[in-house]
Design brief:
This protein is an all-alpha fold. It has one domain. It contains six helices and no strands. α1 runs antiparallel to α2 and α1 runs parallel beside α3.
Length: about 220
Amino acid sequence: MTTDAPTRRSWRDTAAVRVLGSVLGWFSTALALTLLYRSTEALAALGGSCARGGPYVIAVECTDAIALFMPLSIMGGLAVVTIANALAQGFGAPVWLYAWPGLFVSLSIVFFRTFLLGGDGVGLFLGLLFLVMGLAPLALILPAAPQRMLIGRVDAQGRPFWEAHPARAHLLSLRPPAAPGENRASAADWALSLGIAIGGSLLGVWVGAAWFASVA
């Protein structure tokens, strides 16, 4: 008599890891965008350019906060979001799809502020340009995958959701979307995914603002 060997699950195939990935993704994205926004805002207050170090005479020296957080927010944010996406494995609102709109919309606010406070026409143009660059991807993706944009493709256990309107390819698609499953999303699934996205974002913004203020 032969028996089937038990299926061994990887540590990545657990609900805790998927939830951790989603929490980490939303928290780190909000943290990085907050630090970048505050750094860009501080840079705009200095006239739009600054430098630090080197053999040349520096007209406008970057503050400690700009020197630290400008590169850290970009490189660190990209690294952590990549790791978080690998851990979440399709669970929760896909933060990597919102990171691009969040980046450009937040920067557009800085340019609009320079226009409103100083009447800079270039600021108005760049603000509108960055706003369009940020919102255009959402306009393409949201209608193509409405449910996946809000709660992801799978639940915390990794079971693909059933979708009333299955995701379809769009102009930014790198490959055809995976087929939906038969697992109907419950109210708890919606609450968990949206709660992580909202709560993680708020916490990231708060930590980012406090961290920047402590250095500035």
